[in-house]
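Entry 14. Structure prediction run on the chain below.
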Amino acid sequence: MTEAEDVMAEYRIAERYSEWRSAQALVDGRLDELNAAIRAAVATRAWGIRTAVCRVTGWSREHIRQLALKQDHAGATPNNVIRRSEE
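Output returned:
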């Protein structure tokens, strides 16, 4: 091989390595997203419901927990839940 061919071969190897690193970074990011989704799915149902309520209402998780405790102590049923206006 001539020196020019050696340089071109090294350039192609470096280019492939760069593409591989970019692809690896993309895959790592997607795996992190998948891991987060799996962790969210594994979370308890109650925690997921509280999180959803927090997002919709803007309340803190602690506030939701306190409301849940009030409901538990009051023997809550769907017909006697504490409404937001009753806080």
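Helices lie at 3-42, 45-57, 61-73.
Filed with the rest of this week's runs.
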